[in-house]
Write a structure and sequence with these properties.
CATH class: Alpha Beta
Distance between the termini: 11 Å
Shape: globular
Order of helices and strands: EEEEHEEHEEHEHEEE
Strand content: 25-35%
Number of domains: 1
CATH architecture: 3-Layer(bba) Sandwich
Length: 224
């Protein structure tokens, strides 16, 4: 047997799934194009945003001229991962530099924030723990190249994405800190409740190789 354990960290893509709750983000559409009894084959059309379900953010998502998804090297997407259990944090709690100074830091970090239990509910998009500016900069200083989370964002959900905020310096500042430095963000990570131990895991993040894209739905899994 090649691996002792594999854990799939990917949400299924389907028409009723949660998507980012703003008017300009499309819902998932899946239509049948070909059928066994008619065309002799099953084929589907899928329409969804690049940040649907478990997905990877490329720097281009927020940084004009930033690296696009197909330009991310595989070395950044595969390898040993340090898993941190912060699932006891309260709602709207900030992950601070002081907290991070007490844990092991690796190049690839997976944070279990306990938010997967709210998947496919409106609660998923509000009140989740987030990174403080100092915490994000601390991770950069320690050479982190990937941050994976089971929440929709590393930013404070109380920042309202509308009006004068949208596109301003106040819009998603933690995203910008990470992505400007070339850190890859993996969001909506699933199934972290299946983890029984946190040591000696490797991670694979496999986004679609979409030319010029700002992100992509991704198959994500742990193995050892």
């Amino acid at each position: 047997m090649l691996f002792k354990k594999i854990i799939d960290l990917t949400h299924e893509i389907h028409k009723e799934m949660s998507t980012f709750n703003v008017p300009w983000h499309t819902k998932v559409s899946i239509k049948i194009l070909g059928q066994h009894g008619k065309e002799g084959r099953m084929t589907r059309e899928i329409i969804m945003g690049t940040h649907t379900g478990t997905h990877t953010d490329a720097p281009l998502h927020f940084i004009a001229g930033g690296t696009s998804i197909e330009e991310i090297t595989l070395e950044k997407l595969v390898g040993p991962v340090t898993i941190v259990n912060f699932s006891d944090l309260e709602e709207n709690a900030a992950i601070t530099q002081e907290m991070l100074e007490k844990i092991t830091i690796g190049k690839k970090m997976l944070f279990k924030l306990g938010w997967g239990k709210y998947w496919n509910t409106d609660k998923f998009y509000s009140s989740y723990p987030f990174f403080s500016k100092e915490a994000a900069e601390f991770l950069l200083g320690r050479g982190v190249e990937m941050v994976a989370i089971d929440t929709p964002s590393p930013d404070d959900s109380r920042i309202k994405l509308g009006g004068d905020t949208l596109g301003s310096d106040c819009d998603s500042p933690i995203h910008k800190i990470f992505l400007r430095a070339g850190v890859i963000l993996v969001e909506y990570v699933a199934n972290l409740d299946k983890l029984e131990d946190y040591e000696n895991w490797n991670i694979v993040v496999a986004p679609l190789k979409i030319k010029g894209a700002d992100g992509s739905p991704s198959r994500v899994f742990l193995f050892k």
